[in-house]
Each structure stands twice: as structure tokens, then as C-alpha cells.
């Protein structure tokens, strides 16, 4: 019987067909490697002999873990291609259960970047990019980008929650009721319909603001296309900024010049601004300026309340439990709403959490990812 060496391990191969036996397949497919625990935190300085010895042992453990032979069933992987423009993975061939992953659009199944990366790590997906198979190392750069990016943080949270047994799906904000729709929502819906040919949702059409906003936008459109202005006098009048060039008579009695220029301009009748105010063009400009509708901006004190708005806090994922019978076609309310804090951001106070909780019924799970990629999560129940 012939033998073949696989990474310093002897595997028997049958001479007739060259395939492994069933016992050998099971042994190599479910091979496990238990790395040694790191122990307590090291306190030695960099470059010392104990630190170098610790790094050498860690590299040997990693090399031994990677050299363990593994057997995977290639037919058990789904096939997808990465769409660089839409930043999604289009699934060409499904294998296994995909009811908790991706979303359907026009009869096609698409995976989010974090879902594709997660299935790649599990060995359930073969991702191709311009005809080439993407490795896991390449997928980290292609799908997630930099380590400090928001995508990388979202994937760490998605992977940790999925491995913990939760069903993690992208959070889709619920549609507002006609009573909750504002005039700004109507304006954006009409702009999307005009520019992007997107139909106006029904809950916006039934809003009391919709008819008023639509009529106002039509009037503005007619005003722009017809090149009309509300005040025709302003367009007809020409602004003459030429100052009077007539020579002035010199004063009979010379004025004593002060020693400094500041004192010279402060004397009544000798200021340059006071002299310009006597010109005909200044009075004409002042008359036109009074016709303008001046709107006073908010002061610094007025904008203090706006800085407390939760612009950086948003719900990213929804968590569902497996035993609740989750169905993506008709999902139930989530068990938790997940908020992922931006990098180097402290946990929000109770007032900010309460503002978000007022618009959602599920408890909030606020998660922070540190620089060392450690995840901290706090669950908020606000009655």
C-alpha cells in the first residue's frame, strides 16, 4: 500500500482508486486543534528574551494549527460573484439553507458584505471576483476594507452575534403612518419621483401635507421655467455704483490736522464713510437693500439644543431568536435592536437612549468595539 505525506502527516491512500476511505474522510474533515491558552497578561518590555520566546511559541502554535489537513466538500459550497458597484454578492448557486441570509430582488438573491464574509469563513461560500476565486484574506480587503472602517466593526458584531446563536438581519426602518409624515418627507418623495422615477409610497400620498407640497413645488417649477420674479421692480431698476465725480469746493478755513490718522478720521465730517453716505448712489443702494427679505441666522446659543440630536446613533441590526420561527418573508418584531457605537465613542446617557426607545418597541442592545477588537454590549430595558 502506497503512502502520501500531507503536512508531516501520513495518510493512507488505496492503490486502486486513489480515494480516502470513509473513516479517513471523517477523521480529516472533523479535525480539531486546541491552541494553548495565553495565560496572564505579560508585563515585560518590548524586545526582551521572554517576549521573543512567547512570540516564537505563538507562531509555532499557529503554524501547527494551519498545517492540520482538512477535507471539504466542494459541492457543498454556494457560488456567488461580487458586484463592486452595488457592494453586494450575487448568489448564482445555492447549497444548503439560506433562509436567514441575503435578500431577494427581481428574482435574484443578494448577500450583504458581512453575510458573504461570514459564509466564507464557515466554508459555505465560494466567492468569485472577475472570474477569480477570492480567498479569505483577499475577501477581508475586498469586502471590509480597512480595520478601522465601519464595515469591519459591523462584521465583527455580526459574526459574534451569529456564532452566539442569534439570527442577525439588517434593520429596515418601519414606514411612517400618514399622521407621522412631515412636509420634508413629501418633498423628498416628490424629488425621488422626478429624478429617479421612484413611485411615491402610499403612506406619503395619504398624508395631509402631500397635496400642499405638490402644489407648491409645481408653482416653483412654473416660476423657474417661465423666468418670472415676484418683484418686477428689482429687475428693472439698475444699480449705479458710480460715485459723484464732481469736484468739491475747498473749505475757506483750513482744518487743523490732528497728529494721528485715527483722530483725523474720527472728526465729524471728515470720515470716509460719512462722505460716501452723502452720495446719490448710496441712497439708491440703501433703498434697494431695504426691499430684501433678511432672515436672521440662529446664534450659537440657539443651536445648542440641536447638538444633542442622535445623528451618529442608528440601529444597524435586528436580532431574532431561533426558537421563535423566524421567516424573512413575514418577519416578527425583533427581540433586540442593535446599535453599534462609532469608534472611540462613549456609551450614550439615559436620555439619548430613551429618545431612540420611544420610536422602537424592542429593547436596545448597544455595542462598542474597542481598538483591540473586544466587544462590549449593554442591554437597555426602558419602561
TrEMBL record:
Residues 65-128 form the tRNA-splicing endonuclease subunit Sen54 N-terminal domain. GO terms for cellular component: tRNA-intron endonuclease complex. The keyword Coiled coil does not apply. GO terms for biological process: tRNA-type intron splice site recognition and cleavage. Keywords: tRNA processing. The keyword Phosphoprotein does not apply. InterPro entries: tRNA_splic_suSen54, tRNA_splic_suSen54_N. Pfam families: tRNA_int_end_N2. Belongs to the SEN54 family. This is Uncharacterized protein Tsen54. It comes from Drosophila suzukii (Spotted-wing drosophila fruit fly).
